[in-house]
Design a protein that fits this description.
By secondary structure, the chain is of the alpha+beta class. The chain has two domains: 76 residues, Glutaredoxin (3-Layer(aba) Sandwich), CATH 3.40.30; 128 residues, Glutathione S-transferase Yfyf (Class Pi), Chain A, domain 2 (Up-down Bundle). 55% of the residues lie in helices and 6% in strands. A four-stranded mixed sheet has the order 2-1-3-4, covered by helices on one side. A hairpin with a 5-residue loop joins strand 3 and strand 4. Helix 4 packs antiparallel against helix 5 and helix 5 packs across helix 7. The longest helix has 31 residues. The mean pLDDT is 95. InterPro entries: Glutathione-S-Trfase_C-like, Glutathione-S-Trfase_C_sf, Glutathione_S-Trfase, Glutathione_S-Trfase_N, GST_C, Thioredoxin-like_sf. It holds the Pfam family GST_N_3. GO terms for molecular function: glutathione transferase activity.
């Protein structure tokens, strides 16, 4: 067996960073192997054998099995590396509470990432444009409104305590906030949650890693924010 799990992906990716946050929250020792989609490294035969969809991240477990999709990986990590004797608040075992966590994870994936992050950042990184299309700006605002409504019901994304759903949501919100900042006046509950998430050391350190700082500095040179 391998001594530790291996995470494949780029630290510029919200989905990869969500997994990194989960690993750090549970103090899991892991190895990161860089895979750069802009260079097509996710479409090599070697990588596609690990993750047939060609998306990042992928996780190689300690016994050399592979899992794709950040939400599947985070759920696996939360179950596999839960500390003995610890409560289950991060990933509740209660059927309803766990379903609410999954609901917010799917929201992060199918709404925020698929309709906002991906269509906004892909053309920016490819230098096809220097601004976000109006239809994507509209989708971002709608995603902020949806997240605000979720937070009207809970202190955190899916409950009144931190869960793995917060990890999936914060990386997307962080990326979208860079392009289209919201305010305490426009989205008070969202801003309060965002600031509390960024106050968590392992969240802040992940989202402000040297890699992310370099990426934001690169974008700052030419991106016109909404």
């Amino acid at each position: 067996m391998a001594s530790k799990p291996v995470l494949y992906g780029s630290l510029t990716s919200p989905t990869v960073n969500a997994v990194v946050i989960a690993l750090r929250a549970l103090d899991v020792d892991y190895e990161l192997r860089d895979v750069k989609p802009l260079k097509g490294e996710n479409l090599t035969e070697e990588y596609l054998n690990k993750n047939p969809t060609g998306t990042i991240p992928a996780l190689e477990t300690e016994d050399h099995q592979f899992i794709g999709d950040s939400h599947a990986i985070i759920s696996y990590v939360a179950d596999r590396y839960a500390k003995e004797g610890a409560d289950d608040s991060l990933y509740p075992r209660d059927f309803y509470k766990r379903a609410k966590v999954h609901q917010l994870q799917h929201f992060a994936n199918s709404v925020m990432f698929a309709t906002c992050v991906k269509p906004a950042f892909r053309p920016l990184f490819s230098r096809l444009t220097n601004k976000v299309p109006e239809e994507t700006v509209k989708a971002i605002n709608e995603a902020f409104d949806m997240m605000q409504r979720f937070l009207n019901k809970n202190k955190w994304a899916a409950a009144d305590h931190v869960t793995i759903a917060d990890f999936s949501c914060i990386t997307c919100i962080f990326a979208l906030y860079y392009l289209k900042p919201f305010t305490a006046e426009s989205h008070p509950r969202l801003m309060d949650w965002y600031q509390r998430m960024m106050d968590i050391p392992y969240v802040n350190e992940t989202l402000y890693s040297d890699t992310m700082k370099g990426t934001l500095q690169f974008l700052d040179k030419y991106v016109i924010k909404a």
